[in-house]
Design goal:
Radius of gyration of chain A: 23 Å
Largest interface: A-B, 48 and 47 residues
Radius of gyration of chain B: 20 Å
Number of strands of chain A: 2
Distance between the termini of chain B: 64 Å
Number of helices of chain A: 15
Largest sheet of chain A: 2 strands, antiparallel
Strand order of the largest sheet of chain A: 1-2
Shape of chain B: globular
Strand order of the largest sheet of chain B: 1-2
Number of strands of chain B: 2
Structural class of chain A: mainly alpha
Order of helices and strands of chain B: HHHHEHEHHHHHHHHHH
Structural class of chain B: mainly alpha
Number of helices of chain B: 15
Order of helices and strands of chain A: EHHHHHHHHHHHHHHEH
Oligomer: heterodimer
Strand content of chain B: under 5%
Chain lengths: ~375, ~325
């Protein structure tokens, strides 16, 4: 038998660096695990990883492209973080993002023709947030009043949103579709007054500033408002919240609506900053699901979310750049796989921030 | 009238119910032992992609099914390790399993995407029974996996209610502390049942690529069946035979477009809206059967989702 005995013991003191070290180590471990799969598939992991970082984080356009993808990821990351930290699991940011794009592009097409740019973009963003919140509303109400698991309802709503979006562009001659385009069905482009301005000759747009501002706003709400306080209490104990007179139902509903609005906002920034139309092919990227990884890795901290979103944005961006490598193509999906692995290791590593592994000889353990 | 199409739809619904039922039965086993595994969709994808590879390489249906199932079990051991040994949050871990499973299966399956696989399960005809109107095509002319699924559901019912080991599993799910005192190995029981759940989920995914859809594609193969299976366990109040009934209902919702599009009386509903049907049905079912009070009454395992730590008992 094994001469050692492993036990997890609760740490008596915690250090701040442990919560930074865990995500970093989990990223390293995930890359190591990813290397195994790359080797099995016959790729050289060192080359793949080197190119991956070169593509996303070393050139000007690499960095700005990474930041461009970070914009929706910051917002979907916040969408997950706001509720996950209360142990409410809205995993439907993906669907809320689609609805944000549907509402946002509608507003862009219908309302912004004569507006100055700043106002036009604002209209698109507000419409997107409303769309996302509305899409989360059924899940919020069912959870608050019937105790229905929001995990499954938000995900089911995501599938419904997906088919709705496809219907608007591929399945009908809706208001969103460019009915003059003769070839492949596509969305009608929103006027320039509803678009974010680009930064010089890059693809990066002012949505980044908006996303960072929203991150700060979320932090302020959580830390300094009574709603944020209520959310914290409800999150740590339903019963405690009820006894101290906090309206639990209202707080739960508000939290899910805010989360939905953030997801919707992500869809609206994609419309105003990148796609300029309701473009199902350009939106079905799993940005909502990646938001969950962002939030978990950032330990639900709004500022860490900005950093993590940039990192994962780069990873995703590099997947595309890897296509340019000589030899056999590395699938774009390598970045998706790495994301999942990073999350798994982060969850596994989480316990070591408040537990430590103690190893003792079995003989001693028996003697004591 | 178009009765023939309706009967064909019902018969197709039985086939469509198989993966949903298998995945839900697996989840039922894991949940009965007290571990919630939201990663069903990920385990199904891994099972599907591995089964496809083996089916493509060897042409053997049953070997492909076996490898797909084992791959699902192996994959679910990640969840067991994180939740049982490291006592991680089961919800977050399950979500991570879906994300990793999606990424890994797409990565592995990149080279075979869209490639057709010309294997199929041959239906078993039960002699003259297959000629009975309606019931014949519905029950006596189906592929072997349909009967296997029914047998598995019956076996699980007997196991959980009539055997000592099965009762011990339920004890672990209801009150791990008490089970531990009685000498039941809580961690081992949970590992085994999470992995049995993975086995069945992998089998469900394998059946999808081998018998239901003609080729592998990450978003088209499972299409949320893993999540529907999770809702189905709640709907079935953790009873295996009710899982079968519910799976048939969802199978019908998945195939209803087949029937509705052929009917004159049916309004001309766009295909996208018909595709929403199973997901709408899932929400409706959860709102009605998944309410907090009802869940408590019908016997959701009391320790579901709670990690067991002997030191903090």
């Amino acid at each position: 038998m094994i001469p050692f005995r492993f036990r997890l013991e609760r740490r008596l003191e915690r250090h701040w660096w442990q919560s930074v070290l865990t995500p970093l180590l989990s990223i390293l471990a995930a890359f190591a695990a990813g290397a195994i799969f790359l080797l099995i598939k016959g790729f050289d992991p060192i080359t793949v990883y080197r190119e991956l970082f070169k593509a996303s984080f070393t050139s000007k356009f690499g960095i700005t492209d990474s930041l461009t993808i970070a914009v929706p990821l910051i917002l979907t990351g916040l969408a997950a973080a706001v509720v996950f930290r209360m142990n409410i699991f809205n995993i439907g940011a993906e669907g809320q993002l689609y609805l944000g794009a549907i509402f946002g592009s509608w507003a862009g097409l219908a309302l912004t023709g004569n507006l100055p740019t700043v106002l036009g973009v604002a209209v698109v963003l507000v419409a997107g947030a409303v769309g996302g919140a509305l899409w989360a509303a059924p899940a919020a109400v069912f959870k608050a009043y019937f105790g229905t698991s929001e995990i499954i309802t938000t995900l089911m709503l995501t599938f419904i949103a997906l088919f709705l979006m496809r219907y608007l562009i591929f399945g009908s001659h809706s208001y969103w579709r460019d009915n003059e385009a003769a070839n492949f069905p596509q969305g009608k482009k929103i006027p320039s007054s509803a678009r974010f301005e680009l930064w010089s000759d890059t693809r990066l747009h002012w949505g980044l500033v908006v996303a960072i501002a929203i991150a700060v706003l979320v932090w302020v709400i959580i830390r300094f408002t009574s709603l944020g306080y209520d959310m914290n209490v409800v999150g740590s104990s339903d019963a405690a919240a009820r006894y101290s007179g906090i309206p639990v139902r209202r707080t739960v509903i508000m939290a899910i609506l805010i989360s939905g609005a953030l997801g919707g906002l992500a869809g609206a920034t994609e419309v105003a900053g990148r796609a300029y139309a309701l473009d199902p092919n350009g939106l079905e990227l799993g940005l909502g699901f990646t938001g969950i990884v962002v939030a978990a890795l950032a330990r639900y901290n709004p500022f860490a979310i900005i950093l993590v979103a940039t990192f994962l944005g780069g990873l995703r961006n590099a997947g595309v750049a890897l296509q340019g490598l000589p030899g056999e193509r590395v699938p774009v999906e390598v970045s998706l796989m790495l994301q999942g692995a990073i999350l798994l290791f982060a969850i596994g590593g989480e316990i070591f921030t408040h537990h430590r592994l103690s190893v003792s000889r079995v003989a001693e353990a028996v003697a004591t | 009238m178009n009765d023939a199409v309706f009967v064909l739809t019902l018969a197709a619904a039985v086939g469509a119910a198989v993966p949903i039922a298998l995945a839900a039965l697996g989840e039922l086993l894991a949940e009965t032992s007290g571990v919630l595994n939201l990663g069903v969709e990920g385990m199904m994808l891994i099972g599907a992609v591995m089964a496809f590879q083996v089916g493509d390489a060897t042409g053997s249906l049953w070997l492909a099914l076996l490898v797909g199932s084992l791959a699902g079990a192996l994959f679910s051991s990640i969840h067991a390790f994180l939740c049982v040994t490291l006592r991680a949050n089961q919800i977050v871990s399950g979500l991570a399993l879906v994300i990793f499973g999606t990424g890994l299966s797409t990565f592995i399956g990149k080279s075979i995407e869209g490639k057709p696989l010309d294997t199929d399960f041959t239906p078993i005809r039960w002699g003259f029974l297959a000629d009975i109107p309606v019931l014949g095509p519905l029950l006596f002319d189906q592929d072997p996996m349909v009967y296997a699924t029914i047998a598995i559901a019956i076996a699980i019912t007997l196991y959980l209610n009539r055997t000592k080991a099965g009762l011990a599993v339920r004890a672990v799910g209801e009150s791990p502390g008490t089970a531990d005192t009685m000498g039941v190995a809580v961690a081992a029981t949970r590992y085994v049942h999470v992995m049995l759940g993975g086995l069945l989920a992998g089998m469900a995914g394998a059946y999808l690529v081998l018998g239901q859809v003609p080729s592998w594609s990450q978003d088209g193969t499972t299409a949320g069946i893993g999540w529907i299976a999770l809702a189905l366990v709640v709907f079935a109040s953790w009873r295996p035979l009710r899982v079968l009934l519910g799976a048939f209902l969802f199978g019908f919702a998945r195939r209803a477009n087949f029937w509705l599009q052929g009917e004159d009386w049916a309004p001309d509903i766009p295909a996208e809206f018909l595709s929403m049907l199973p997901y709408l049905l899932t929400i409706a079912v959860l709102v009605v059967w998944g309410s907090r009070d009802l869940r408590r009454r019908v016997g959701s395992p009391s320790a579901l989702g709670v990690p067991y730590d002997r030191a903090e008992r």
